[in-house]
């Protein structure tokens, strides 16, 4: 492994130099107080990042759950991912579903694969959403650790609308919730009941992260999902369920295990929130869903 790392050497590249007295963005925070970059359009050079990543020949795993009716989201999700997700790199799509025969056949570019993982469904939707933590920790250990370097864990009711590339990768990353990036701490919808393992006191918390896209190295995702799953099980035994299910537990985890990179709302946008000036790109978008029709059954 050391030998491989030593081999990384960039070719001659032509680009405008970084300017110490002219930060690329003055309208948004680009770095957390623990020195984790916050990824915004204009703050990075994808040519450099792609060249560095290319040389490592790593594979990125994208995990997505499509249980019951949510299989209908797969086609658009996968087709747009082929256009915008980790273009030029090796990708394994891991699709967790209880309906393997309903996974659409989507044409994939070279170096990209679909792996269908059959899992059971749960009658309660809250359980479907929360059990993702259990399955992700199990498969990280059983399989992903042998197949990919990084995992990107996503909601399926989404589509790609612009580049989502290696700029998002880091040991552990989370994403700012598009409805709360500008909010005060007191309005973050953390779990506020001390009886829950997801409890966050009112005088703590950095950001409110969305459950629909997070990731990191397989080892870090394993640690995160295992810890969140265990906390969810403790809550269950105590007859309590966190206000936003596993998203609440994710937020608790990130408070005490600071992410090493944070994705801006460019990476999780919902057009119902309009188009604020700070948003230069809408890379990953919520697909409008008819709640009654899609969610029941
Ligand atoms: C979810 C809610 C109600 C009924 C069904 C489901 C459902 C979710 C399902 O029938 N099948 C299924 O595969 N899912 C998976 O769970 C799917 O991957 C989906 O994207 C994910 C989360 O459910 P979703 O997208 O309907 O919830 P959102 O968009 O309101 O998500 C936020 O809040 C959730 C917790 O309540 C999660 O934290 C999620 O990560 C958040 O984005
Ligand atoms: Mn969703």
What low-confidence regions span 5 or more consecutive residues with pLDDT below 50?
none
Largest sheet geometry? 8 strands, mixed
CATH superfamily: Spore Coat Polysaccharide Biosynthesis Protein SpsA, Chain A
CATH topology heading = Spore Coat Polysaccharide Biosynthesis Protein SpsA, Chain A
Overview of this protein structure:
The structure is a single chain. By secondary structure, the protein is an alpha/beta fold. It has a single domain, classed as Spore Coat Polysaccharide Biosynthesis Protein SpsA, Chain A (Alpha-Beta Complex), CATH 3.90.550.10. 29% of the residues lie in helices and 16% in strands. The protein has helices at residues 2-6, 46-56, 74-84, 125-147, 218-237, 245-256, 291-295, and strands spanning 38-39, 59-66, 90-97, 112-118, 150-154, 158-160, 172-175, 213-217, 261-263, 284-286. Helix 3 links the parallel strand 2 and strand 3 (90-97). Helix 4 (125-147) runs antiparallel to helix 5 (218-237) and helix 5 (218-237) crosses helix 6. The longest helix is centred in the middle third of the chain and has 23 residues, at 125-147. The N and C termini lie far apart (48 Å). The model has no long low-confidence stretch (mean pLDDT 96). The structure holds 5-phenyl-uridine-5'-alpha-d-galactosyl-diphosphate (2GW) and manganese (II) ion. Manganese (II) ion binds at residues 155, 157, 212.
